[in-house]
Amino acid sequence: MAKDRREFLKNSGVLGLSGLIGPFSVFSEDHDFLNFQQNSYLIKNTEILSMDDSVGDFLGMVLVENGKISEVSKNIEIPQGIEIIDAEGGILIPGLIDCHWHLWTSLLRSMSGNSLQEGYFKMTARYSELYSPEDMKLAAKYAIAEAIHSGITCISDYNHNARSWKYVKASFDAMAEMGLRGHVSYGTYRNMKESDSTDFRGIKTLKELIESDSKYNDIKLGLGSRYANYQDIMLDWKRARDLGLRITIHASSNESQKGQIASLYNKNLLAEDVNIIHGNAITPREIEFVEKTAASITMTPYSEMRIGYGLPKINQLNESQINCCVGIDTTALTGNAHLLDTLKLLQNLANANAKNEFYINPKKLLKMATIQGAKNLGIDNETGSITPGKTADLVLLKKDDLNFSTGNKAYHLVIEAALPSNINMVMAKGKVLKYKGKLTGINSDELIKKAKERFSEMNQEIG
Question: Which of its termini does the chain have fewer beta carbons within 10 Å around, N or C?
Answer without folding.
Answer: C
